[in-house]
Amino acid sequence: MKKLSIIIPFNKGLCYLDDCFGSILAQDLNKDEYEVICLGDMPEEGIVAKIEQYEKKDLPVRYVQWIPAYGAGYARNAGIKMAEGEYVYFLDCDDYILDGCLKRMLSYAKEHDADVVSGGIKHTFFKRDAFLADPKEDFINMDRKGTDTDIAKIFADEVTVLNMLIRKDVIDANDIKFADNVSYFSDMPFVMKLLSVTNGFFLVSGAYLAKRERNDPIHLPQLNQSMAKEPQKMLNDMLLVYPESIKYTEGQPKRRNIVMYMLCKNLLKVMEAGYRPKKELAVCAEYTKQAVKNVSSRFRFAERMALSCIAAKRPAQARICTAYMIINKKKDGRFGNKIQWFRFIDKLIFSHMGRKDNWIVFESFFGRGYNDSPKAIYDYMLAAYGDRFRYIWILSDKHKKTGKSTRYAVYNGLRHVYYASRSKYHVYNVRQPGWFVKKKGMVFLETWHGTPLKRLVFDMDDVYSANKNHKAEFYRDSRKWDYLLSDNRFSTDIFEHAFDMDRDKIIETGYPRNDILYSENAPDIIKKVKNNIGIPEDKKVILYAPTWRDNEYYESGKYKFDMALDFSLLKERLSDEWVLLLRTHYYVAEKLDLSEYEGFVYNVSGYGDISELYLISDICITDYSSVFFDYANLKRPILFYVYDIETYKNELRGMYLDMEKDLPGPLLYTSGEVLCAIENISAVSEEYREKYDGFYERFCSLSDGQASKRAAELLLGKRRTE
Ligand code: C2G
Questions:
Q1: Pocket test residue of 364, 449, 563 for ligand 1, highest count of atoms within 8 A of CB
Q2: Are 116 and 196 in contact (CB under 8 A)?
Q3: How far is Cα 256 from Cα 452, in angstroms, rounded to an integer?
Q4: Which pLDDT tens digit goes with each residue over 449-497?
Q5: 388 and 289, same structural domain?
Q6: What is the Å distance from ligand 1's center to 449 Cα?
């Protein structure tokens, strides 16, 4: 007899299966000791090939499929019927087991003759080879027989069968089944019945499952992500599994409270998602009446009130409590955060004031600057149309723009909300704030801020940066764009899939921000900019402009700076002839002390427009930043200082170009190599001349100094878009 059957329902998420199957192989179990039963529940294409691939790798896997979809509960029940192992273990296709987990559980179960052994669950956004354990989740820190308090803790968020080893004959003898008439909560009756019949619920330390929180709820939603979209279904499913689940907790108040808490918690979720129980009200009230008495202490005041209203069959009042509850959840202070108040004022007042057809809002890098393509478009429009429009700049702090027709507003401030509500035209170079409501007749021009090198949004596997909801939020916000500017065909192709955009909304105007690089006044501008920064006339200029690192942050939007270039060495060898401008990415929050390099290193991180810095530089050093696509317009030398390329390329982002082959300059890995390249810059340029020309052709050939005009005309509807 086999020791173990691993049961895996599969529906969607082929891209996760390598991690799942790979993690089973890595358990290093004897092939004859176990079996994997994979159950295709109206599965995505490609699953059969994937199974065959793993059969070849010696995974003892059986595969069965059916169409249409019956749900995970049905699939798991089918798996139990087929299972030949002494123990069963349920695994989801997008999760993976950490090394050593199954051996730990199996040996513990044997030693203690246990019916049920449970390990811990670690939640992760990451794939298996980049998994980092969070020590906070180490709740099971020693092996023991679990008490009811332990059980309540384990199932506090969700009643799940995951990462449990269960003796098969206990399931058979007691006819324990998953609910197969629901999409959600199918585990609850199974687990509650199991708990009522076992000889104990044992906990083992060091046996973990990595439960993946998917980061793409748009294309690959996981169950709890789709729940919010179908609250009525969610409520119906809860009401279906509740009575059976509660039945198995008789005489066990702590376990009963688990079920009651699940009912109340999910009922609140349903109402938060905007659904008010109607035909289900009587049943809901009956169940909730009892439940709320027992578990009310676990809820906040507004939540308790909402539940009591349902128990008293007063859904309208429950709705008011839910609204208060939502505000309370998002709040900074007791009555909601500032932006919620501003939106409220907008609803009440601004949105009734009428739209202004000659108002244009400009924003760049979340209000961090008056720069980039929005500035170029603004400058052009001011010169071409003057006072015919009112121009509004959104900036992060008070910063009065001069000029009769220009106003300013603080990012996320009341005036921002006011102008966002009333202006017809909107020009942003990053995503607009999530609260932005696009009204009928408004025109939204997204300029974006660089030709992509690093993989973007839906092309990223894992999102390593601070905001894990990146994909969902990006999708929501980008649906409001009418036009997205592109600097070249390469970008157009990428934006189409990475942003999931309609191609006809992506317009190849070239980047307005690069018009200045083709300006006839370049010599005058150079003189003025050098003067502003205080660079001696006789010095040549190196611009060092690296990008940010997704994994090195203090908090969302505030990233660390890795001082990886040896400024002392460069200063010692180059300062007679050169100065170095350090330009950190706008996400970098570090205050750098560069006093020891005074006279050589100039910190220009706060300087308005990087294109003016391009113009005054003789060499540009960058890494994975889109900076080089723009700088290449000048046809001046570019060096790539990529000391951490392996981490960046493989673990963090992945790239659209082959850095070894496609770049118009050398990849350099140490400060010594950078120094050497600068000292021999003519030879380096010569070596890359041909590649550079090809690169220019591919990425810069749309630029002619007229992109701002094209973008402005597009915005005003004066340009055909095909
Ligand atoms: N930038 C800058 N200084 C730096 C790096 C970047 O001023 N040290 C500006 C440049 O205009 C650059 C833009 O910010 O083109 C985007 O920076 P990236 O380093 O390319 O990184 P990111 O903000 O992640 O944008 O499609 C483009 C991607 O979205 C990249």
A1: 449
A2: no
A3: 54
A4: 999 998 898 888 766 655 667 888 899 999 999 999 999 999 999 999 9
A5: no
A6: 7
| pLDDT the model gives residue 489 | 97
Is the separation of the CB atoms in 194 and 167 below 8 Å? no
User: Which of 547, 550, 656 has most ligand 1 atoms within 8 Å of CB, for mutation?
Assistant: 547
Which among 654, 659, 264 is positioned nearest to 459, based on CA atoms?
654
CA distance to 97, 391, 425, 442, 444, per residue, from 439 (Å): 47, 19, 11, 6, 10
**Identity of the amino acid at 561:** F
- Ligand 1 atom with the smallest distance to the CA of 622 is 8
How far is the centre of ligand 1, averaged over its atoms, from the C-alpha of 392 (Å)?
Answer: 24
pTM of the predicted model as reported, rounded to 2 decimal places: 0.75
* DSSP assigned state of 655: B
State the distance from the centre of ligand 1 to the C-alpha of 709, rounded, in angstroms.
23
Host domain of residue 212: 2-217
Query: In whole angstroms, what is the distance from residue 293 CA to residue 304 CA?
Result: 10
Exposure on the CB side of residue 375, measured as CA atoms within 13 A: 20
Compute the distance between CA of residue 628 and CA of residue 698 in angstroms, rounded to an integer.
Answer: 13
Q: Whose CA is nearest to atom 10 of ligand 1?
A: 627
Tell me 381's DSSP state.
H
Residues with a CB atom less than 6 Å from ligand 1: 372, 449-450, 452, 454, 456, 545-547, 583-585, 610, 625-627, 630
Same domain, 622 and 573: yes
pLDDT at residue number 334:
47
Query: Residue 411: which of 419, 402, 403, 401 has the closest Cα?
Result: 419
Q: What is the pLDDT of residue 369?
A: 84
What is the separation, in whole angstroms, between the first and last Cα of the chain? Answer: 67
Pair (401, 279) in one structural domain = no
Instruction: Please tell me the residue having the least CA distance from ligand 1 atom 28.
Output: 452
Same-domain status, 95 and 26? yes
- Clarify whether residues 324 and 366 are in a common domain: no
Residue 223 lies in a domain: no
Report CA(626)–ligand 1 centroid distance (Å).
5
Contact criterion met (CB below 8 Å) for 238 and 230? no
Question: Which residue CA neighbors atom 4 of ligand 1 most closely?
Answer: 585
Q: Assess if residue 709 is contained within a domain.
A: no
> Closest Cα to atom 19, ligand 1: which residue?
625
* Closest by CA position to 256, among listed 287, 302, 232: 287
